[in-house]
């Protein structure tokens, strides 16, 4: 059940409309940075393997098989090690993921402002960012006044005052998007780790109980 929940959360994060709209973009021949998906794929793999390993442990407990319970314990140790490694990778790269996406956005934004922007897809990329995240412009002076003089790039509001007051910078929105998603991944990883620790303890207790049983 825990494996199924983790797999469901991971698939939801993988197919979330905001991240897929942004991370599937292509600027010329350059693909949007999709390092974020590495953590998602690890979570999907862990969830799927947990479901299989959980079935193995359940069957081993029903059959009172030391061999199956020992295999179950070994698989859990390997999964736990992989999860710790993925957690360390995520902690190291948590700021880099948002930074790479912001750099990709800035490149598209510069192309969209060029006179020959019709010859590249910078404008389309920027508009996708703006519409998906409800933002306009990067975190600088140009970004602050962009809604006023480039309304063709920004989400339209009812009035100029609303445009000034309600439009956020895309750098801020990108940070919020990925920090929120990485926060969910972190919670899922911690929950899985705690469950795995209890599973390892209980499987060893059960295995030792079977070994010491007077029936055998």
UniProtKB/TrEMBL annotation:
It comes from Rissa tridactyla. The keyword Amino-acid biosynthesis does not apply. GO terms for molecular function: lipid binding. The keyword Membrane applies. SUPFAM superfamilies: Tetraspanin. This is Tetraspanin. PANTHER family: CD81 ANTIGEN, TETRASPANIN. GO terms for biological process: adaptive immune response; regulation of cell population proliferation. Keywords: Adaptive immunity, Cell membrane, Disulfide bond, Immunity, Lipid-binding, Membrane, Transmembrane, Transmembrane helix. The chain crosses the membrane at residues 36-62, 68-92, 182-206. PROSITE patterns: TM4_1. It comes from the Eukaryota. It is found in: Basolateral cell membrane; Membrane. GO terms for cellular component: basolateral plasma membrane. Disulfide bonds join 135-170, 136-154. Belongs to the tetraspanin (TM4SF) family. It holds the Pfam family Tetraspanin. It is a multi-pass membrane protein.
């Amino acid at each position: 059940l825990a494996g199924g929940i983790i797999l469901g959360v991971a698939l939801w994060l993988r197919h979330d409309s905001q991240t897929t709209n942004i991370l599937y973009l292509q600027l010329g021949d350059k693909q949007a940075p999709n390092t974020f998906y590495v953590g998602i794929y690890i979570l999907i793999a862990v969830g799927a393997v947990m479901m299989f390993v959980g079935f193995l442990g359940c069957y081993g407990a029903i059959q009172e098989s030391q061999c199956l319970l020992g295999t179950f314990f070994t698989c859990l140790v390997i999964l736990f090690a992989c999860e710790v490694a993925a957690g360390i990778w995520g902690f190291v790269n948590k700021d880099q993921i948002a930074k790479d996406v912001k750099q990709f956005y800035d490149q598209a934004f510069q192309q969209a402002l060029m006179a020959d922007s019709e010859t590249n897809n910078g404008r389309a990329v920027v508009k996708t960012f703006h519409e998906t995240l409800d933002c306009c412009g990067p975190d600088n002076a140009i970004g602050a006044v962009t809604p006023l003089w480039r309304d063709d790039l920004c989400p339209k509001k009812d009035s100029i005052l609303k445009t000034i007051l309600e439009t956020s910078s895309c750098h801020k929105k990108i940070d919020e998007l990925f920090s929120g998603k990485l926060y969910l991944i972190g919670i899922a990883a911690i929950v899985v780790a705690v469950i795995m620790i209890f599973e390892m303890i209980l499987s060893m207790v059960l295995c030792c109980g079977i070994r010491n049983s007077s029936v055998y």
